[in-house]
Amino acid sequence: MPGTPIGGTLPRALGLWQAIAANVVTMIGSAIFVTIPLVLSAMGGPQAFLGWVLGMVVALADGLVWAELGVAMPAAGGTYTYLEEAFERLGAGRLMSFLFLWGSAISFPLISAFIAVSFSQYVQYLWAGMTRAQGKLLAAALCASMTVLLYREITAIGRLMLSIFVVVMITLAAIVATGVWHFDPKLAFDLAPGAFRLSSFFFIGLASATLFAALDYGGYCNVCFIAAEIERPSYTIPRAVLGSIVLTALFYLLISAVVVGVIPWRTAAHSTTVISDVFRKLHGPMAAIGITVLILWATAGSLFTSLLGFSRVLYAGAVDGQFFFVLRAAASYEKISVRIGSIARCTVHDSLYVRPGVSDQGDQCDIDVDARHSAGGSAYGDTAISS
Question: The whole model's pTM is what?
Answer without folding.
Answer: 0.77
